[in-house]
Amino acid sequence: MIYLDNCATTKPDADVMKTFNTVNEKYYFNPSSPHYKGLETNKLLEQARNQIKEILKLNHQSVVFTSGATESNNLLITGMARSKKPFGKTIITSHLEHPSVLETVRALENEGFTVKYIQFNEGKLDLEHFRSLLNSDVTLVCLMHVNNVMGAILPITAIHEILKDYPKVHFHVDCVQSFGKLALPVHAMDSFVLSGHKFNGLKGQGILVFDQLKTITHTMFGGGQEYGFRSGTVNVANDVALSRAIRIAENERVQLVKRTSKFKMMIEEEVKKLPGLVVNSLPDGAPHIVNIGFPGVKGEVIVNAFSKADICISTTSACSSKRAKFNEALNALHVPETVIAGSVRISFDKYTTEDDINQFINVLNKIYNDMKELIKDAV
Ligand code: PLP
């Protein structure tokens, strides 16, 4: 099997699994318990939290352990919007965002919030349009660092510079697809989220990083764990294993970028040789994501054809493919409708090899030959 759907999830690192199993066996105690085993377990949890702070070079920000980016985005966006409601009710975001952001801000519309979307111009976020959306009612800006469908990199530092003139605005960033591939602009974000399984950690592992001294409305109630922000018995084994995954991913980042950039180039060069096929991914996009359009053919048909050859790729993203929705991200980036319907995503991780890419290219050529009449008719 050749696995090229690493934006959906990655294979867990053996070291991360070992950490998880060891901690689960030896420290299954509740870190809130007052006995010595509880205290030891809590010490381990706090060590993991401090290690993450050190690796990510955080200063004043706190690390809240969650079950993943969906939970982290929900907690932060809803809590921050509600706490700032007396000062303004406008949230700015983009159509590129993951459903855990888009559906959260849309749910807030039912509470009287207004949501505005920044436009894109030739694959780039339009900073002038962003400036035009800012006014005294804006309290929250939510953007992703790297888009999960196209690999577009958003200008987080430039947004931060513009927001210096708007001190009441909280800037929240979804770094799920950028961590382990790009350096995080930690100084430019008021809060950000990560999901462990996107960088060879485990499913159900996530963090929300934010300044816990800032006022924020809690949306989960219970035992008051994780600064009162995310109640529920803490999954210490999961959180310690996540700190391990973060360390490994950060240590291997430069090497991963080098390898995956080469793979991206190999595939894009091949696609350019096949008349009618379109490279949707941007030349200056993230190194681990390639997006190809097959005009006149449904993306699902292409994914199935690769599946039959034992190669796993994806249509747009695992989340939106379940919802069978027209891809908002590709549409916002002005990809034509016929191309959107036939778009597929290929994504790499540290376990992807050059041999995988060569085999992918062979199968791509075979599939193209089978479908080239359909493609020719559509262009
Ligand atoms: N944000 C982005 C950009 C993603 O790609 C994903 C998952 O695909 C998420 C958030 C949600 O992550 P999780 O499903 O781990 O909660």
UniProtKB/TrEMBL annotation:
SUPFAM superfamilies: PLP-dependent transferases
Extent of the signal sequence: none
Transmembrane annotation, as ranges: none
Positions of the Aminotransferase class V domain: 2-360
Cofactor: pyridoxal 5'-phosphate
Pfam families in alphabetical order: Aminotran_5 (PF00266)
InterPro entries: Aminotrans_V_dom, Cysteine_dSase, PyrdxlP-dep_Trfase, PyrdxlP-dep_Trfase_major, PyrdxlP-dep_Trfase_small
Keywords associated with the record: Pyridoxal phosphate
Lineage: superkingdom: Bacteria
Protein name: Cysteine desulfurase
